[in-house]
Amino acid sequence: MAAASVRAVDFDQDIRPLLQQHCVECHGEKKQKGELRLDAKVFAFKGGHDGPAIVAGNAGKSLLYQRIASAQEDERMPPKGDPLSKAQIALIQSWIASGAVWPENAADKAATTDKRLQHWAVQPVAPQAQKASIDSWINAKLAEKNLTMSPQADRRTLIRRLSFDLLGLPPAPERVEQFVKDADPQAYEKLVDELLRSPHYGERWARHWLDIAHYADTHGFERDQLRPNAWRYRDYVIQSLNADKPYDQFIREQIAGDVIAPNDPQAVIATGFVAAGPWDFVGQVETKSEMLRRAARAGDLDDMVTQVITSTMGITINCARCHDHKLDPITQEEYYRLWAVFAGVKRGDRDVDVAEAKRVAEEKVRLSKELAQTRAQIAKLAGEGLDLAAMVGGGVKGRGIDLRTGNLTANKLGYHRDIQTNRLQRIEWPAEVADTDRFVSWVFVPDGRNPVPVAPKLEVKGLPATGGHTWDIIRNGPLNAQRSTKIAGVDYAEKDHSILGLHANSGITFDLVKIRRSSGLGAMRLAAALGFGADAGAAASRADFTVHVDAERKFQKLKMRKDEFTHLDIAIPAAAKTLTLIATDGGDGIGSDLLFLGDARLVPELEHSRLTASDQDKLKQLRAQAARLDAGLKAQADPAKVYAVVSEAQPPVVRVQRRGNPEDPQQEVQPGAFAWAPHASCDFGTNETPEGQRRRLLAEWITHPANPLTSRVLVNRLWHHHFGQGIVTTPSDFGLGGDRPSNPELLDWLAAEFQRGGWSVKHMHKIIVMSAAYQQQSVAPNETAGRIDAQNRLLWRQNPRRLDAESLHDTVLSVAGTLNPAMGGPGYRDFNYTEAYAPIYDYLTPDKPELLRRSIYRFVVRTTPHQFMSTLDCPDPANLTPARAQTTTALQALTLSNNEFMLQQAASLATRIENETDSRAASIRRAFQLCFQRAPSEEEQHAATGLVTEQGLFALCRMLMNANEFVYID
């Protein structure tokens, strides 16, 4: 052994065979345990995640030697089979000690040549002959298998196919007959142009884009709160598609529109794309655990990066979060470089027009100050008192934060990220109103077991015990779930009254010093009606109300019942500094408990003397002035907002997370992307580069004309929706794990034509639907073709397709004559909403015109699927959905036959037909025309006559709406 250890060791003769035989199986090209490869010199000396495997000249520090020579069985390598012999170990030890000379040969060079870089999807789009066509490429592939296209479909089939594909709605029977009888050889092309001009086109194709943006109108997760301003992004998509906005511009705006065109409201709205996905309120805001916050933020950034890259470039970038991508040549570091692009991006409501929002805010501040001063003069002169609700509102509707949602909302007080039990919390007013007079200084959540500070160096004691938490602090308006705002028959939510509500458990302190300074009042009295507006179902609920002037308890009412009331008349000395109102839960939890004060006023202690004529005249003028100011304030509409990108000027530094663990950060990374697509520089500045500039550079990189993926991915998505499957059947995976194109030459021709046409999506639609391939029959019998190409990848016929859930829903309404054509605006809410810790969405059968709009305008809830829609394969908006599942189940047939919505619409269809026809035979023909866009056959007319005679027209309508011909596109 001693002789073997000192003799010259030949790597190719002695060492390489040992590595090949014992190591490469687990540490080679196909498998890299511990991120270590030993099949090539460059990888072996780089080492794995435990450090360098080979330290030339020092076997003792080389992990390779340590592991093969280990006496510990659980550490020794190789883990399976016989260990290396002492002689073999000595050879490796001697080789390392003598300098670890590793001559590179052809195998080394081959191992370091990444074949994945030659993958078809990242090669430049091949220049194609401009005179070629879709049909020439299709026919060429068919000819290789001795196949041909099927005959052209009849005109009735074609107009139905086109209408559903481009509009998502059936054609009117009258338009079908007109097209069928039109002898003009250009009739088909004119029909295509007509449909592409329709505003319903944008509604239809926006649905496809929103699927891959996983858009919804709520946050998701267990606290699935509303996003009332998300709809503007949905409308942006519809409007952009209708306007045929160039696709490269469409993408750039959605990633960085607020940077590219900050003064263009539509460009700002476009960034709703980045924010469209789910958001974990508990992990991002509510939790006290910093570790959980980091985990939630990591999920948030992963969602943004995955959505942007997958939707635009068809790359499964998220596979590189925990390690280098197993299939595609994308490193973990490159993945985190994309994180650095979005590191300064948060989701939230933002002003659509910043300049207009600033103007409105400034005007509200001016009006609010003048109104407060005028009301103080009126109160001092007439003794009418100062309205506490007006003090809270301050003329800006008392903006505040609901502790359940984290959303800045109207009719609430202050801005609070976190309020701890018994901890005094100063009001954090929004910046645009921070400089107005604020008479409310402190809020708190009492637990009732300990003294509560209501102001510095001032505590109150003797409060009832509470659960120590609350939903929100205060409202100067009614609670959604509250049964009534009436006290003793007076509705204090109506005009000429005011209402100030305190949610149990919460306390609020008014600054009497500031109030006196502003109003000139001295001694005062608090006068108000006090009521308890419990949830309608909370008959047994109880609540408490306590009033303190400074530290002295002036009033306490315990265990108030729902709809119980009383009146307050509390003296406040001229020297008092604070007035504190406290609502607590009565010992039975917060429920929807809201104690509210009606017409709560601080009334001056005045001598009861009549006003002089001069004072009366002055009072009249002040009241008129107050009325004008109040009207002006109400006329200032809240600036439009959109749920979109909210950015930080200087983002935090991003580090690679070992194995995707936020608690194990590694090396720092700079903003950038992956080098696999080498069309342009993938460096997007440094960690000093402003947040918006990073997104702008990413947007330009994605839409660079030389990017081989962006145009390929988009035309393939269009193809998928026109033929039921893409040329690449994995629309969001163009990597090595995805499908290869069935016709790569056609795909490249389409991609090239897309850019030649100015990135016009409508141009590509027209080219596709004008092709003979698109116009083929879908039911042509061809046993030979079916045997050779069962999946129809070569397109020897058109593919029959089932209507998706939204198209089916809209078609039912269209046929029944109940479809509300209103476009745009907030989504319709076909559910009853109950405000709670986790909101309750209880779906209902739509029976009002505002609920019978196209389904693109439906308010989409993430965690509570719509039963009718989800049964018909409407996807989960928590996930990116490039291709919808198509299932066939008995439940679907039962739903179409028995769902209350379907029964309602079948009845509406029957009524429509009865109003449009004057005989049973005509009614049957009209039913077939509306549902199938054709007349019934003689056999169908005879069978339908028997059915209508026995069971009425409703039975026929119900049956036709459940037929395959109604549900499928040929």
Automatic annotation (TrEMBL):
InterPro entries annotated for this entry? Answer: Cyt_c-like_dom_sf, Cyt_c_Planctomycete-type, DUF1549, DUF1553, Galactose-bd-like_sf, Glyco_hyd_98_carb-bd, NPCBM_sf
Membrane-spanning residues where?
none
- Alphabetically ordered keywords of this record: Coiled coil
SUPFAM superfamilies found in the cross-reference section: Cytochrome c (SSF46626), Galactose-binding domain-like (SSF49785)
Protein's UniProt keywords contain Coiled coil: yes
Instruction: Tell me which domain of life the UniProt entry assigns to the organism this sequence originates from.
Output: Bacteria
Cross-referenced SMART domains: NPCBM
**Molecular functions (GO terms):** electron transfer activity; heme binding
- Is Transmembrane a UniProt keyword of this protein? no
Domain Glycosyl hydrolase family 98 putative carbohydrate-binding module: from-to ranges: 460-604
Coiled-coil annotated spans: 357-384
Q: What's the protein here called?
A: Glycosyl hydrolase family 98 putative carbohydrate-binding module domain-containing protein
Instruction: Give the organism the record lists.
Output: Prosthecobacter vanneervenii
